[in-house]
Amino acid sequence: MTGTDWLGMVMTVVIFMLMVVLYSWVLHPKNKESFESHRNMPLNDDKKNVEIEDGR
């Protein structure tokens, strides 16, 4: 195996492990409240921008 093959294999394993850790962190029940509170953040930001532009 060449160095490029090893690099590709190592990068694949590292990215896979990072994805597993990220998915377990996101889907862990203790983080649900935090993600639920941020769920409508983009929509709330749009409402604030419209209010500022309308002068309300």
Key structural traits:
3 helices; mainly alpha; single chain; elongated; 56 residues
Low-confidence stretches: none
Question: Per the principal axes of the C-alpha atoms, what is the gross shape?
Answer: elongated
Helix content: over 70%
Look at the structure and give the mean pLDDT.
83
Task: Provide a count of the helices.
Answer: 3
**Strand fraction:** under 5%
- Counting helices, strands and paired strands, the structural category is mainly alpha
Domain module count = 1
Walk me through this protein's architecture.
With 56 residues, the protein is mostly helical. It has one domain (3-54). The protein has three helices and no strands. It has helices at residues 3-27, 32-37, 41-54. The longest helix has 25 residues, at 3-27.
What topology emerges from the helices and strands here?
Blueprint: H1 3-27, H2 32-37, H3 41-54
Give me a quick take on this structure:
The chain is an all-alpha fold and 56 residues long. The chain contains three helices and no strands. The chain has one domain.
